[in-house]
Design goal:
The structure is a homodimer of 523-residue chains.
Chain A lengths: L15 H12 L6 E7 L10 E2 L3 H9 L5 H10 L5 H9 L6 E4 L5 E2 L6 E6 H6 L1 H25 L4 E4 L7 H14 L4 E2 L2 H7 L9 H5 L11 E2 L2 E2 H12 L5 H13 L5 E3 L5 H19 L5 E4 L4 H19 L7 E4 L5 H9 L6 E4 L1 H4 L10 E7 L2 E2 L16 E7 L5 E8 L11 E4 L7 E4 L3 E4 L2 E5 L9 H14 L2 H4 L8 E5 H14 L7
Parallel strand pairs in A: 6-7, 6-13, 10-11, 11-12, 12-13, 17-22
Antiparallel strand pairs in A: 1-5, 1-14, 2-4, 3-5, 3-21, 8-9, 14-15, 16-17, 16-20, 18-19, 18-22
Helix pairs in contact in A: 2-6, 6-7, 6-14, 7-8, 7-16, 10-11, 10-12, 11-12, 12-13
Pathway (chains A, B): Cofactor biosynthesis; NAD(+) biosynthesis; nicotinate D-ribonucleotide from nicotinate: step 1/1
Keywords (chains A, B): Ligase, Phosphoprotein, Pyridine nucleotide biosynthesis, Transferase
Family (chains A, B): Belongs to the NAPRTase family.
Amino acid sequence: MERPHNQYIRPLLTDLYQITMCYAYWKNGHHMDHAVFDAFFRKCPFKGEYTVFAGLSEVIEFLENFRFNQEEVNYIRTLIPHAESEFFDWLLSIDASQLKVYAIPEGTLVFPRINLLRIEGPLAIAQLCETTMLVLCNYASLITTNAARFRKAAGKDKVMLEFGLRRAQGPDGAMTASKYSYLGGFDSTSNALAGMIYGIPVSGTHAHSYIASYVDYSDFRDRLIDGQDILQLALDYRRESGFTTNDGELTAFASYAKAFPNAFLALVDTYDTLGSGIPNFLCVALALYKIGHKPVGIRLDSGDLAYLSIQARAMFKKTSEKFNVPFEDLKIVASNDINETVIHSLNDQKHQIDVFGVGTNLVTCQSQPALGMVYKLVEIREHPRIKLSNEKDKITIPCKKNAFRLFGESGEAICDVLMMSDEAEPQVGTRMLVRHPFDERKRMFVVPSKVEKLHKLIWDGRLVEKIPSLSEGRERLQMQIEAMRNDITRAINPTPYKISLSSNLYDYLQDLWNREVPIQEFR
Amino acid sequence: MERPHNQYIRPLLTDLYQITMCYAYWKNGHHMDHAVFDAFFRKCPFKGEYTVFAGLSEVIEFLENFRFNQEEVNYIRTLIPHAESEFFDWLLSIDASQLKVYAIPEGTLVFPRINLLRIEGPLAIAQLCETTMLVLCNYASLITTNAARFRKAAGKDKVMLEFGLRRAQGPDGAMTASKYSYLGGFDSTSNALAGMIYGIPVSGTHAHSYIASYVDYSDFRDRLIDGQDILQLALDYRRESGFTTNDGELTAFASYAKAFPNAFLALVDTYDTLGSGIPNFLCVALALYKIGHKPVGIRLDSGDLAYLSIQARAMFKKTSEKFNVPFEDLKIVASNDINETVIHSLNDQKHQIDVFGVGTNLVTCQSQPALGMVYKLVEIREHPRIKLSNEKDKITIPCKKNAFRLFGESGEAICDVLMMSDEAEPQVGTRMLVRHPFDERKRMFVVPSKVEKLHKLIWDGRLVEKIPSLSEGRERLQMQIEAMRNDITRAINPTPYKISLSSNLYDYLQDLWNREVPIQEFR
């Protein structure tokens, strides 16, 4: 299915001040001046040293639908009632046909200060893209990065399920979370609508309500699977095993197995995980196996997941031996308050979990719920521009810039370098001097063995580059993470990746700084 | 404008396991059994002791549009390919006409364990509401609570602006944030689309790009406001004051004043707040005032907001005195990384801020980005149900229940009490025994002076109760916060509000517990 156009992705989804600024540009005759803007961030999230860029397909959707309608313009008129009438005619006339957008491909590892998007075109129109592009890329990049970190923590052989729908910022927050968790390396989502719209695998079992809906045996009437009474068989196994368990739970499991004889996965913590849930699961699993169907496994949703998963595996093993059934490798799904730190701790405890279901901590990006991507003017009428501010962190790097990733002989990336767009590109085998943006003592020579130009022109009044599919981006990302030095991608105290400026750009930045900042006088 | 239907608010916006459970109910003939579900949360967010309930208008929207279409059912069929064909016919046939929904009004202060929604109807249909209702109420309630806390921290006389669009979880996250920040007590949003759709006031000034777009005086061509040269006048004031400031910034301010002579509010931290931004603002403000327009003020977006606001106020005062102009009360807007703790700290430092612009920390609810509202089966076929689990916190309170708020002689609320639906309601002037849900030693007598029944039947196959408007909910909330004891609503170490059970319900809970939980045996 084609994704329906998101009704909120439109140019009015912006901060009012973008529109008031446009009016001031227009009023002063600057609205069509040629401008260049950069979108970038200043710090990687989650105390990490890498970020994954994402959100590009929505940016394209935004550009393709960039038109104010009459109702919107009428509304804007009520907000700035003293503005001249011709301005509103102009607003009605604009679209994205005069814009150029350069972008780093989705699923690329990116680093602070490197411009992820470069937007060129008439000042007022490019200005109007600011807020919408940021809302489309900020969270998409953040959750993709978070998902990639969870995946890295759990390891390649684990199955990762996204369960965050109920904890996201409303429906669209949830849809975005599902889409970009998949990009980041998750295997599936529980969100059926996201599955339909984005073509992501969907998975899930049942919840506590299902168990609670069975009071006793009498609630399960037609008990036959392939002609055999699943409940009676399960009760026989319970007697044989000497378990004392909750009857409603046993009945619920048996009835669920009847509905899904080849996909029987039971939530085992409704009453008591070790005392009732797992024993009941095993009784029904044995019964089902006897009838001729292989059970799938259990889900743990509370308690000490390391301990319970180890105990569960031991019980599976014991059952395998006692009844001569292949239950040792039944799946153990765990899903209660899992975050990256918890996964590392579970690893240390040699957990027996096969599948992680992650909701809240994935979609809310709890340890850092926002990526601070910003959108800054870097050139106007061919004059490079800078934003200084009192905080060094908030300084922007001026000029229309290209970005390159330089690789060494080992095949690993050495650094990214920002260069003015009219500088000659870095050459394989040619030594170049690169400099830290703000620390004059930090500089180095690089002789690249490979040079990757990071930006592609994706929009030139219309879409001019095929945007990779979600699956392609997902593969690209896993390859990038594998190729990157592990000291940069590791979870604890990672090494910062080197971001540098060409010598020319560095000198230009220093010069502009000296020119633009008045020296304060103290008495 | 009528809010357009949110395209994602539909029954397929759910966890797949809700659908697989439905199939299992259907397969076992239980799908039409009468069920009662409660939606509630277990812990107030932000280390607080109150929460604001919100999200009801979207719940109604969901119920009104509760119908699967053919495309969705075809998609579901691909997810559970072995399910019987009649199930899909049944899915196509269902709607919300057999459901009853009882709800606490939006904007009410609510507390842990009290059911915010009670949903009654056919088991499978009520089950299918779980995830969607949770995604609609969880974040709405969380951000409303967060906004209310920010408002309380800043005080009633401050203006609060929501600026979070670019940091939300995509477009709908942002729209929800704007809507419910207003419910929580904010005055306006920067999000123009939210303004149009929800009728919320919108406000904003300009951003750094506007300042940076002016290189020097020559970029400002038509400098006349009411026939006078605003830039020349500003330059004259600058000479007279002896300021050395950035020329591009001064020019940008003057040009902005030309576009908005009666709404001139300048962002002053592009180059140097005290050394350039505020002096430039004052020069343009003096010029504008001379021409006959009152300037509005400044926005601080970086640096030490307490210090800078105090310095700015002092500069306003000095300018007022020197030039005999009414500049002492010009507005100071502050907007950099503000959160509840920062506001309390600014208060301690006697800041001079009039208006707070809050983005990231408001919309992401950074200190707790999810409210854990859950949806549990409490009665099936007239049998009360319980979910126990190993964690006491995860125990649900069984039975179809009503909730009451009991007020004392002082007019303040004493406690909320949950009662079985067939118990006699609490009576004014009549003593009743109420008990802590889990601690047998905690019990008390209450003689209420006023009794408020918390739930209203809002949906009985169709909407049967007028849902208050956003503004009505906003007023309701502010009245509720004022009426609540301050030790419960204060920011630091608040006192928990008392949540209790009627004596009957308490006994029933103990009894069910003993019946349902097997006693584990250790050897």
